[in-house]
């Protein structure tokens, strides 16, 4: 089980796990629950530059289409082929196998994101 307090979060419901200068990005369990059954993900190509706060992909569910926002400036170095092949993994393992992309980032930029307590305050949940 991922230690949710070790992650950083955005107000757009993405989570970030930093390992050196590589940030693994996914959507939170809160976002996955609100979207409903995810049926398709459209992720940026490897090598794509991202801008913090800008749309970098889409997540389609049986309820709606949601936008994936880049949590940080960076460059896409990997996307999750498992989520592309089986988008339902984003619902079943939002903090594990359902990650979406990996970005090469400035590690210092991660400090500006929300911690778990601030994210829970934002969503009004303790999930």
Automatic annotation (TrEMBL):
It holds the Pfam family GCV_H. InterPro entries: Biotin_lipoyl (IPR000089), GCV_H (IPR002930), GCV_H/Fam206 (IPR033753), GCV_H_sub (IPR017453), Single_hybrid_motif (IPR011053). The glycine cleavage system is composed of four proteins: P, T, L and H. CDD domains: GCS_H (cd06848). Residues 22-104 form the Lipoyl-binding domain. The glycine cleavage system catalyzes the degradation of glycine. The H protein shuttles the methylamine group of glycine from the P protein to the T protein. Its cofactor is (R)-lipoate. NCBIfam families: gcvH (TIGR00527), PRK01202.1 (NF002270). This is Glycine cleavage system H protein. The gene is gcvH. Belongs to the GcvH family. Gene3D superfamilies: 2.40.50.100. GO terms for biological process: glycine decarboxylation via glycine cleavage system; protein lipoylation. One of its GO terms (cellular component) is cytosol. The modification N6-lipoyllysine is found at residue 63. Binds 1 lipoyl cofactor covalently. Keywords: Lipoyl.
């Amino acid at each position: 089980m991922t230690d949710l307090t070790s992650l950083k979060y955005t107000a757009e419901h993405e989570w970030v796990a930093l390992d050196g200068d590589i940030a693994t990005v996914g959507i939170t369990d809160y976002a996955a629950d609100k979207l409903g059954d995810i049926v398709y993900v459209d992720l940026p190509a490897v090598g794509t530059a991202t801008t913090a706060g800008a749309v970098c992909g889409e997540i389609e569910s049986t309820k709606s289409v949601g936008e994936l926002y880049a949590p940080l400036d960076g460059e896409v170095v990997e996307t999750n082929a498992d989520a592309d092949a089986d988008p339902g993994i984003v619902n079943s393992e939002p903090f594990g196998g359902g990650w979406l992309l990996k970005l090469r980032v400035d590690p210092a930029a991660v400090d500006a994101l929300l911690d778990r307590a601030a994210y829970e305050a934002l969503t009004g949940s303790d999930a």
